């Protein structure tokens, strides 16, 4: 997809081969992930807004590679970005106002740069569970969430950004995201 506005109440975008989404607006997905990335595929999202997923994750990435730059992901009923066993780079992106977690990382490798995660009043801004390597959060801001950053015991996170103004800024959880 390149440039345009996509409204949907019946389908989402499912990537199983390389996909680039640029300068687009995706709105009002009623069921399923707004964008799903599967089967070791690669997806790049640039200058795109995903606004409104009512029964699913905003972006769900499963054993694949994701790059997001200069984009906005907001108003998602579940995780705004769900990364399962994936390699991901998120930069200059606003992740805002969701029903569960802002960025949910399970396994894999993730770098978050100069991005803002806010408005997850019932969840975690960035949830890090059993990453393959240290998760890097460089620059940006994590604020206005129930929990700013939650990590599982034994996980490593490198933070050179601002985590503040959350009900709780940092929590260490049991594996599988089970927090006290």
Count of DSSP strands:
20
Quaternary state of this entry equals single chain
How do the strands of the widest beta sheet line up side by side? 3-5-8-11-14-17-15-12-9-6
Strand percent estimate: over 45%
The backbone outline, from C-alpha atoms, is: globular
Task: Give an overview in words.
The chain is globular and about 35 Å long. The strands form two sheets. A ten-stranded parallel barrel has the order 3-5-8-11-14-17-15-12-9-6. The chain has an eight-stranded parallel beta sheet with strand order 2-4-7-10-13-16-18-20, with no helix packed on it. The N and C termini lie far apart (42 Å). It has strands spanning 2-7, 13-15, 19-29, 35-37, 42-46, 49-53, 59-62, 65-69, 72-76, 81-84, 87-91, 94-98, 103-106, 109-113, 116-118, 124-129, 135-143, 147-152, 157-163, 168-173. With 180 residues, it is mainly beta. It is built from no helices and 20 strands. The protein is 0% helix and 59% strand.
Question: Which properties best describe this structure?
Answer:
180 residues, mainly beta, ten-stranded parallel β-barrel, eight-stranded parallel β-sheet, 20 strands, globular, disordered N terminus
Describe the structure in brief:
The chain has 180 residues and is mainly β. It is built from no helices and 20 strands.
């Amino acid at each position: 997809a390149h440039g345009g506005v996509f409204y949907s109440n019946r389908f989402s975008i499912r990537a199983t081969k390389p996909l680039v989404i640029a300068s687009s607006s995706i709105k009002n997905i009623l069921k399923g992930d707004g964008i799903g990335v599967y089967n070791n595929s690669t997806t790049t999202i640039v200058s795109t807004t995903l606004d409104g997923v009512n029964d699913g994750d905003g972006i769900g990435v499963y054993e694949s590679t994701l790059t997001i730059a200069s984009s906005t992901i907001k108003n998602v009923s579940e995780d705004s970005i769900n990364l399962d066993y994936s390699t991901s780079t998120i930069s200059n992106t606003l992740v805002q106002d969701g029903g569960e977690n802002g960025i949910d990382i399970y396994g894999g490798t993730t770098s978050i740069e100069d991005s803002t995660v806010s408005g997850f009043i019932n969840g975690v801004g960035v949830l890090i569970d059993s990453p393959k390597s240290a998760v890097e959060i460089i620059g940006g801001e994590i604020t206005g969430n129930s929990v700013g950053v939650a990590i599982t015991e034994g996980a490593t996170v490198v933070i050179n950004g601002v985590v503040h103004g959350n009900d709780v800024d940092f929590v260490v959880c049991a594996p599988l995201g089970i927090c006290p």
